[in-house]
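Record format v2
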Amino acid sequence: MSKGMRAGEAKYGYLFVAPAVIIIGVFLVAPIFLALYVSFSNWNGLGSPLGNSEFIGAENYQKVLVDDGLSKSDFGTSIRNNFYYVIFVVPAQTALALFLAVQVNRRVLRGRGFFRTAFYFPSVTSSIAITTIFLFLFTASGVVNSILAFFGINGPNWFKDPRGIIHNFLGVFGVSSAPAFLEVQGPLGISWWEWVAGPSVAMCALIVLAVFTTSGTFMLLFLAALQNIGAEIDEAALMDGSGPFRKLFSVTLPMLKPTLFTVLTLGLIGTWQVFDQVYLTGGNGAPAKTLLTPAFLAFSTSFNDLKWGQGAAISFILFAIIVALTLLQRYILRDRDVGKRAETNATRAAAEVKAGAARAVAKNASTNTDTTKAGIR
Amino acid sequence: MNKKAVGAAALAIGLTATLGGCAAGSDGGGGDSAAGQELSILIGSSGDAETQAVTEAANAWAEENDATVEVIAANDLNQQLSQGFAGDSAPDLFYMGWDQFATYASNGYLEPYAADLSNAGDFYPGLVDAFTYDDTFTCAPKDFSTLGLIINTDAWAAAGLTDADIPTDWDSLEEVATTLTTDTQVGLSFGLEYARAGAFMNQAGGQLISDDGQTVQADTPENVAGLEYIQKLYDAGVYKRPADLDAGWSGEALGKGLAAMVIEGPWIKGIKNDFPDTNYAAYELPAGPEGKSTYTFSNCWGIPQGSDTAEAATSLVEFLTSDEQQLAAADAFGVLPSTESAAATYAETYPENASFVASADYAVSPVNFAGSSSAMVDFNSKLETLVPGGDAQGILESLQTSLQAALDEANAQ
């Protein structure tokens, strides 16, 4: 190794990053490893896990995933509930956030600042406060039901109603109990009929709440990305003769793809970890466990049943689910510049460029004529 | 260069040191006598009145013994307790709920001190049973409550009913509930959960666990009969859940005049702040086909196992469970004293609550053994589907399976 002027600088580098590394190590990395150990141990919450517990292999995971019993069916119920929560919330919040961002990005909109603040406001308010207010809004004789009553609709008792909306929908056609082919046992200890229940009416209120509170944050992300799209691109699209919808779907949205990926990923992670709202509605995921989520189940298994290993195991299974889904989403949203699909895309794009150029030429020709005419006049 | 290896080794050592740091317990020193000790008490308080009363009592003891006591009202007792135990900083004394007691005792959280108390023999035998784990009377019952039938006396008189009509069995309960039901008021209301519905199951002659403690008997015809009686009242429109009435709990339904009768304990007294004009009286629960039955709920004073301050805390418990202090607490926030002599005095002082004390003679504790809580929570969630038109037999069969599994696991330990 040569000793130049910069010899020995490396140690200063290590010195400067040391505080960050130590803090992250002590408060993030070590606890994660400790929790991972707990999930393989029989720790009962008395004293530190190190020295007060034994390694018991994958027993905790087995109880949650394999052995028949309440642990497994509770976990299955919580996965079912959260699955419906995710597939309703993530598309809705992304679409709403994008819609709001496009609206407040318009230059002609008066009072843009006001609207931006107003839409962002739910995101800066504590989720505890908003949930409490929603609990009042969605009581049997609350504001929401009063409004529904004005339109002649008899609203449900939202947070007390455990009926799944897909079950309700099937009930309209007279299917009120499990048909034979759905009565069989599904995965994770609950029947297929239970799996297809859909979110309960109570969960629907939480879905509305989540969309309401999170779309503001994601609107901000979209807005930042939208402002990165130069005015010249807008103009070019306009010159190419695209209407507002065509422009949104063929120009703006493809340019927002990285942001879209971020928003979907954050949305997916956030919705799989829903806890506050469930904790606040009280009573172990009442009504009838339809608000039970894996995050809450991990909490109550640990803190109320003192089965800390099992609680930690649930957390790590949840972690695995989130990682798997994020990778899947990354795969679906990947750039299609390679492979067979890319070739078709390229051919199509080339054709479109040609057609576009032809259109532009035609348009330019007419514009030129207009200018000439103006000149003559 | 093998800088990478050195780095990895450093990281590994650092990680081990950090984790090791977590293992190092920190037990403060302590003397043998209470003098000079600092105790912390964690309570799950029902409100300011309770917090204040406990603080005053604890301070009185502290002054006598030259110690300091800090009373902390928990926001979430279970969570704060678990956190304290995991961090080796458990409170020196805490409220231990009946529903969590067995779980805590079986995990070795609790110091079994109660048998050595000077007043150990004064407590109700039922309460001693409730806080006995592995044949050891573990912690001293703080107080107790039983369930009773609370009747809105104004609604009662308005419906033309008299003292002679006070229901004594299921038939007369149904009768008065029907009489009391009007367009704006339902005859009877209570939360549809194990701690209420279970009383009806017992009144019908059912019990969840066999006398030898080995088998679960949940799906018996007696238990089904108890649940079906509730369904019958609901279908007749004379019973509704508080949620159906848009009330948070049945006490609120009573106060708002939405329900004429509710099933609650002495804590019903708490509605006087929100509904000072509601007049009510408490009676024993009506008997079912197989006689009277009600539940008794209690907290005990828990002391962490191996605590340095255990001796001082025990002396504090002795003070707090003395008849004098229990009567003061009863006076402040309406709980029933856990010793028989104090309870008798209480019944004389507060004749309106005498029925709660009277029913202590036959009251039983709800099912509670280590690991039973998740089965009972599941039962509660299934009970929500009992009305309208639920499957009582199916609900009890599901309880049979989950509770038997939990019982087998508890017995195997």
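The radius of gyration of chain B is 24 Å.
The first strand of chain B starts at residue 38 and ends at 43.
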